[in-house]
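Incident log, structure service

09:12 report received: a user says their structure output differs between two submissions of the same chain.
09:20 pulled the input from the user's history:
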Amino acid sequence: MDTPLILVLHPDDTGCDLMVDALRKSGFRVRCAPDAAAALESLAQQPRIALLVADFPGHQLAMTRLRREPALERVPLLAICQSPQDAPEDAVAFLRTPADVSELLQWAFLLTGADPEALARLPQLLPSKRAVC
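09:34 re-ran on a clean worker, output below:
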């Protein structure tokens, strides 16, 4: 089975470090995109899911532009934002910021169809205290 790629749309590299680190330690490949243009470049790598951190100016415009791309229209979108109203209509799930890393990883495993055994190892992959991003 190939290693699932997750596209993270987040305007700030340092702001998504914990999220990216947790996803990588859990066996995912991760590509960060600070804007719609960078996300469009990433589509050639065929991400399994897109993770949108929707607490930045212009995220709605970025998603509108991305959803016009045939390569992304079937990619599930997981939104991380302050309220469900901030999430795009077509998001399959919503996590409230700050997002709990274990919940984020559970959604990542579910949406990518990744190895269920990896999900069982989840407690070993997380810091001992509750991690949020």
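09:41 both user submissions now match this output. Likely a transient worker issue. Closing.
09:42 reviewer note: The two ends are 28 Å apart (CA to CA). The helical segments are 17-25, 36-42, 59-67, 101-112, 116-120, 122-125.
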